[in-house]
Amino acid sequence: MNYTIESREGLKVTVSDLGAEMTGIHLGETEYLWQADPAYWNEHAPVLFPYVGRLTGGKYRIGDREYQMKIHGFASLSTFEAEKRSENCIAFTLKDSPETMQMYPFRFLFRVIYTAEGHTLKIRYEVENPGQTPAEDTPGRSANSQSSGAADGMLYFGIGGHPGLNVPLEDGLSFDDYYLEFGDRCDSERIQFTPACFLAGREEPFALEDGRILRLRHNLFDEDAIVLQNMADSVSIRSDKGRKSVTVRYPGLPYLGIWHMPKTDAPYVAIEPWGSLPSRQDIVEDLRFKPDLLRLGSGDRWHTEWSITVS
Prior knowledge:
Mean pLDDT is 93; it is low at 132-138 and 144-149. Helix content is 2%, strand content 41%. By secondary structure, it is mainly β. The strands form 6 sheets. Strands 8, 9, 10, 11, 12, 16, 19, 21, 22 and 26 form a 10-stranded mixed β-sheet that branches. It has a 6-stranded antiparallel β-sheet with strand order 15-24-23-20-17-18, with no helix packed on it. The two termini are 28 Å apart. This is Aldose 1-epimerase family protein. One of its GO terms (molecular function) is isomerase activity. It holds the Pfam family Aldose_epim. It comes from Porcincola intestinalis.
């Protein structure tokens, strides 16, 4: 089922309870969100949880036991419970179940909250490890401060967003007329991947024009996604030939994926704030020892917020 929220300024956002996935971001006559044309990519903006990216052989392990899970986890295939809180805010909740336990042997509560304010859509992720001891809500990445093992009730998870954004945004312009502009000058690094899209175990400097600009062209994505770290915490899609733009802010998430379907002329770009990374090539990862994953002790909670602003 689709739900719609709207800001007083006319930003209209549609979200499905299947995957808590945005299916529209509309202002005036412009649709900013990719509309899932199967000729290129049949999704809009999947929510990535409890893993980001690929697992070797579709498997991971906790100690000696292996589990199967699909790329980007199972949230995008799950039906969330919806709670419309106001005309401009809606929350979606997913909890562990016998079905999730088969592929992810952890108790959890995952909530996605969408709030439309002005021309900005705020996206808040909340994760809780259900337990007996109340805990303070811990913002950002301090969830990683926990280090004890799964036998001690730890919850290990990855998380991220994957919204496709239409490019071009205006008639008469082309994909190549646009560029990405980061909010600040930065010395970003590109995380290297194998041809099969697993971590290669190294990073390389990724030069930006004037430390801020990446000009879009379709062949940027011939080898799949560009994944950056040490970049600014916001990026905008712009064209000097047009007036419309999109800005994505992600202050609590350390990685950014930039993608469209490889070796195509796809008219969108996905701007993907990630909290964690995929697996290494040919290694069935033990989640207890994967350093980029988030960790929560029993009873602990974590949250982060990112946003999409359109103009």
